[in-house]
Design a protein that fits this description.
single chain, 173 residues, alpha/beta, Rossmann fold, 5 helices, 4 strands, 30% helix, flavoprotein, FAD, dihydronicotinamide riboside quinone reductase activity, Ribosyldihydronicotinamide dehydrogenase [quinone]
Length: 173
């Protein structure tokens, strides 16, 4: 991994948590291997998870009816997205590997991370139609999920009380 650029998108409120420790170890180990590591600590950044009109700088393409997906796509093309979004897009673009570090909340990612994905991975930047999934603009990026469950491995199997974790992580993967 020497010389590679790594982005860790970290979504936990407490630096002393298991997630915080996993992030810290990843930064230390990857740096030791010669990687350049950038961390987007979403809680420390007070990252805005809500996709709103404020994400578009300037005029809307349709001021009569606000459609976030359409407006974000048009704003991306015009380079008129809010700076917090474009800053994160730049980090993703520059990274060879993106690691998502988070706790599992109600069988999904924390809202702040979901909001990061909603706002940062917009049409035009991460995908187009057609041109998503394996044909998306980030298809050559490596990504890794590092998450904690607060339960045992047996709980997240096909016969476990919580069900097979592969199914509820499918959209994220």
């Amino acid at each position: 991994m020497a010389g590679k650029k790594v982005l860790i998108v970290y979504a936990h409120q407490e630096p002393k948590s298991l997630n915080g420790s996993l992030k810290k170890v990843a930064v230390e180990e990857l740096s030791k291997q010669g990687c350049t590591v950038t961390v987007s600590d979403l809680y420390a950044m007070d990252f805005e998870p809500r996709a709103t009109r404020k994400d578009v700088i300037g005029a809307l393409s349709n001021p009569e009816f606000f459609n976030y997906g359409v407006e974000a796509y048009e704003a991306f093309k015009r380079r008129c997205l809010a700076s917090d979004i474009t800053d994160e897009q730049k980090k993703v673009q520059e990274a060879d590997l993106v690691i998502f570090q988070f706790p599992l909340y109600w069988f999904g990612m924390p809202a702040i991370l979901k909001g990061w994905m909603d706002r940062v991975l917009c049409q035009g930047f991460a995908f187009d139609i057609p041109g998503f999934y394996d044909a998306g603009f980030l298809k050559n990026k490596l990504a890794l999920l590092s998450l904690t469950t607060g339960g045992t491995a047996e709980m997240y199997t096909k016969t476990g009380v919580s069900g097979d974790f592969r199914y509820f992580l499918w959209p994220l993967q």
